[in-house]
Amino acid sequence: MTANIKKISLAFGSTGTEFEIPERNLASAILPSEFEIKEDRASLIKKALENPIKSRRLSEIVNPDSKVAIIVSDVTRPTPTAKLLPPLLDELYLGGVKDENITIVFALGLHRNQTEEESRKLVGEEVYKKIRCIQHDRKRCRHLGETSFGTPVEVFEEVADSDVIISTGTLEFHYYAGYSGGGKSVLPGVSSEKSIISYHSFYSKLFEGDPLSGRTDSPARQNIEEAARIAGLNFILNVVLNSKKEIVAAVAGDFIEAHRKGVEVVDSMYKVPVEPADAAIVSCGGFPKDINLFQATKSLENAVFAVKKGGVIVLVAECTEGIGNKVYERWSTECKTPDEAIQKFRKCFEFGGHKAATVGRAAKTFKLYLVSKLPDTESRNTFFTPVKSVEEALEKIFSENPDAKVHVMPNGGWTLPIMK
Description:
This protein is of the alpha/beta class. It has helices at 41-50, 58-61, 81-94, 116-123, 125-130, 157-160, 193-201, 203-206, 219-231, 257-270, 293-303, 326-334, 338-347, 353-365, 376-381, 390-400, and strands spanning 5-12, 15-22, 26-29, 68-73, 102-107, 132-135, 141-146, 152-156, 164-170, 173-174, 178-179, 233-241, 247-253, 271-274, 277-283, 307-316, 367-371, 385-387, 406-409, 416-419.
């Protein structure tokens, strides 16, 4: 009977997908704790800039001769940069800074370059016309020192040569750094390939330890913050988004203290107590979090906490740009089994290979299905079983266990299940 069937919509790329599930099989929808914001988003940002945490106002830090670098997120991140920049620029103007002394730098890390259209859309047409916008070049970096973890601090020279460095970004969970935001825009955001690989190489040492997502005390976060201090990061403006990608909180000021205040908001919204179920259906939350499999696996890493050992995870990720990393793609063809990927990762770190090992680790504990636009061969090579739809995955789950309880995670990239 239709009364016993629940229809559920999930984000898939820039559109969406729907499926039906018997209500008796639906354990829960794992959703963030949304809260109402009565003031407009521009006011939230302005208020954060006027009341910085453990810092002077930005307008008091700069002077009319200051050369300013503003680091912004690239196209793989959901940061609403076009909304952050106008109030941020107004604060700089209040301090006397001129447009010609400001440079906006897209933090690419090891990601691909953006198109001009993507860059223009990210910062907004008006800003793009009047402010110099450039992309991070990991081959043009200056050595500034070394962290206590042995990571060389090599920063894009356009940033290193600035008098004032400002970072913008979104605060959310991160599988390795604990959370995004803060100094992460410096390392790995605008660092050299050598620095980025050194930073990521610690993951092989921490890979089989306690989960790092949702923690601020991990070596990775400490490494990030040492590098940011050496680079001279002066000020951050970070925001927290709700499931509709709307700004619900903004923090500004010291790159550690302001970051931690934002983390408190993230935890209150996105850490969700759950009882592990037999299966979970997880959407990344749509574009850009499911732009490729490299990004989409971050949602898989959150979903594992919602499922019993031996259970099933169905990852719903469009992946229009394929696997998204050449090393990940190569490892996926070279490593025929999850164990091979894990053993290879233990012996030698290679950026991109860590994704093969991470998915391999999940595949040893759970049955993994993938609803995507990837060719079936690529899905299988990455240790997923390809399915055309969520319904097909559910048929397979219920054929083995008609009473299976299933969690649904519409915002897997944002939500971190915590065991009750």
